[in-house]
From TrEMBL:
It is found in: Cell membrane; Membrane. It comes from Noviherbaspirillum galbum. The Tat system comprises two distinct complexes: a TatABC complex, containing multiple copies of TatA, TatB and TatC subunits, and a separate TatA complex, containing only TatA subunits. Substrates initially bind to the TatABC complex, which probably triggers association of the separate TatA complex to form the active translocon. The keyword tRNA processing does not apply. This is Sec-independent protein translocase protein TatB. It is a single-pass membrane protein. One of its GO terms (cellular component) is TAT protein transport complex. The gene is tatB. GO terms for molecular function: protein transmembrane transporter activity. Its main location: membrane. Gene3D superfamilies: 1.20.5.3310.
Length: 163
C-alpha cells in the first residue's frame, strides 16, 4: 500500500488547510474519513467474498473426489460380490467336486487326533517337571470351588444330602 509517514501526513494537512480553509476543513476531514472507512469495508467484503468462493471451490473439489472414491469402492464391492456369487453357483452346480460336501473318512479323524495329542504333549511337557517344582510353578490348578472346599474349616462343613 501507500507508505505514509508522520511528515507526509503533516505536509498533506498543511496543504489541505491552505487550499480548503480552516472553516471547511473539519467537514472535509469527516467526509474523507467516512469515505476511507467505506472503502475499507468494501475491500474487506470483497476479500471475504473471494475467500468464500475459494473455500467453496475446494469443497466442491473434495466432494467430487469423495464421490469418485465411493463409486470406485462400490464397483469393487459389486465385482467381489459377483465373483463370490459365481463361485457359489459353480460349487452347487457340480456336487461331485464340491469340497464342502465331502465327508471326512475315519482315518482323517485318527490323524487329526494323533496330531492334537502330539501338540498337547509338546505344550504340557516342554518344561521339565523338576524345573516347574524348583521355580514354584503350579503343575495343577484348582478351581475356585475346589479351593473353597479344600480350605474350609472342618466345623463348618455341611454334609451333602446326596451320597
Amino acid at each position: 500500500m501507500i507508505d505514509l509517514g508522520l511528515t507526509k501526513l503533516a505536509v498533506i494537512g498543511v496543504v489541505a488547510l491552505v487550499v480548503i480553509g480552516p472553516e471547511k476543513l473539519p467537514r472535509v476531514a469527516r467526509m474523507a474519513g467516512t469515505l476511507f472507512g467505506r472503502a475499507q469495508r468494501y475491500l474487506n467484503e470483497v476479500k471475504s467474498e473471494v475467500s468464500r468462493e475459494i473455500e467453496l471451490d475446494e469443497l466442491r473439489k473434495m466432494h467430487k473426489d469423495v464421490k469418485e472414491a465411493a463409486s470406485g469402492f462400490e464397483q469393487e464391492v459389486k465385482q467381489s460380490f459377483s465373483d463370490v456369487h459365481s463361485e457359489v453357483q459353480s460349487a452347487f452346480s457340480d456336487p461331485l467336486s464340491n469340497p464342502l460336501l465331502d465327508t471326512p473318512v475315519p482315518d482323517q479323524h485318527a490323524v487329526k487326533a494323533k496330531d492334537f495329542r502330539k501338540k498337547k504333549l509338546a505344550r504340557s511337557s516342554a518344561i521339565p517337571a523338576w524345573y516347574k517344582k524348583q521355580s514354584g510353578r503350579r503343575t495343577r490348578v484348582l478351581s475356585g470351588a475346589a479351593r473353597v472346599a479344600r480350605y474350609r474349616p472342618a466345623g463348618s462343613r455341611k454334609s451333602a444330602p446326596f451320597h
